[in-house]
């Protein structure tokens, strides 16, 4: 008992040393060579060494193992059984699939069986390699994505592949599909119907449009058509340049400093421009305060009326203040008017 208690502090110190060692190596993003593995074994417990050896025995590189500290937190039996299962996926290299070791064992067993059954119909042999090839991603990145969106592992592959080809044939950007993979959960009929409606409205197709509610989709079409009327074949930058009577390059320069300017819908730009110009603001005032376009027209109208009622001649800078500083300005004007009245 006494001997056992004597070794507990040593075991604790070894664990601390290992943790510090791994952290320092990962933070510095250094590559792990043979001497790093030797250093690891000098600072690690037998349990950690056993896990490292088990991983290397099944084809993982020491670089991958030592770069992912979470591996050492996995139960040794889970680790060993998981590596055996992943080999049945016929990986080009084990480093491609190791991320899947984080899955519960029952889930990994199920997916391994499914992968084996569909290996002859899935290009590249399994879904990880299929998605990696299709979307030009690294297998490790794909593994994390598929663990997040679990249905990508289980959705009928023929349906999934069919949806992908429909989207690509209709010029949907590949990166947009990857960022919005929920589209694969929707029916082919709905996707085809939405694509037909979007084409009829001459709209560029985005995955979110194809799976939105009918109300949102209808309103999207209306907004796009309204924007088209406003712009009249001009770009947003060209439209602003014409309205504010400056070269387009001036608008481009401003938008480089305030990127949100060109992201505002043309209908909102028109509404704000009409309001400000009618209220006597000059194009130079608007150009010097581009953030005015990010405010709602109702807020601008309310503040302009309030400040004028308090006897001030508002600037666009005043209209664009945040709630706190704007209220401070209002309080000062109220105090000033009170003193004058007294």
Automatic annotation (TrEMBL):
Keywords: Transit peptide. GO terms for cellular component: mitochondrial matrix. The keyword Transit peptide applies. The keyword Transit peptide applies. GO terms for biological process: termination of mitochondrial transcription. InterPro entries: MTERF, MTERF_sf. GO terms for molecular function: nucleic acid binding. This is Transcription termination factor, mitochondrial. Belongs to the mTERF family. It comes from Aphis gossypii. Signal peptide: none annotated.
């Amino acid at each position: 008992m006494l001997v056992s208690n004597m070794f507990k502090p040593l075991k604790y110190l070894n664990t601390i040393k290992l943790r510090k060692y791994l952290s320092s190596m990962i933070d510095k993003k250094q590559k792990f060579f043979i001497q790093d593995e030797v250093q690891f074994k000098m600072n690690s417990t037998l349990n950690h060494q056993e896990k490292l050896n088990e991983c290397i025995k099944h084809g993982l590189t020491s670089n991958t193992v030592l770069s992912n500290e979470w591996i050492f937190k996995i139960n040794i039996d889970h680790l060993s059984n998981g590596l055996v299962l992943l080999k049945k996926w016929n990986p080009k290299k084990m480093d491609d699939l190791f991320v899947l070791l984080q899955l519960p064992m029952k889930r990994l067993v199920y997916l391994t069986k499914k992968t084996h059954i569909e290996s002859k119909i899935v290009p590249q042999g399994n879904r990880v390699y299929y998605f990696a090839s299709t979307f030009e991603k690294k297998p490790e990145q794909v593994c994390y994505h598929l663990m997040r969106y679990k249905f990508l592992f289980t959705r009928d592959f023929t349906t999934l592949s069919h949806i992908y080809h429909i989207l690509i044939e209709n010029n949907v950007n590949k990166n947009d599909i990857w960022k919005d993979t929920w589209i694969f959960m929707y029916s082919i009929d709905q996707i085809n119907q939405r694509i037909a409606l979007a084409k009829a409205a001459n709209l560029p197709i985005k995955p979110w449009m194809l799976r939105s509610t009918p109300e949102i989709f209808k309103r999207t079409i209306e907004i796009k058509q309204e924007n088209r009327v406003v712009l009249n074949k001009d770009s947003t930058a060209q439209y602003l340049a014409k309205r504010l009577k400056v070269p387009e390059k001036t608008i481009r320069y401003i938008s480089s400093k305030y990127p949100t300017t060109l992201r505002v819908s043309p209908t909102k730009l028109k509404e704000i421009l009409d309001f400000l110009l009618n209220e006597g603001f000059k194009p130079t005032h608007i150009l010097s305060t581009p953030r005015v376009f990010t405010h709602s027209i109702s807020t601008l109208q309310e503040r302009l009326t309030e400040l004028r009622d308090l006897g001030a001649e508002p600037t666009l800078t005043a209209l664009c203040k945040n709630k706190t500083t704007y209220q401070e300005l209002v309080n000062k004007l109220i105090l000033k008017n009170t003193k004058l009245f007294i």
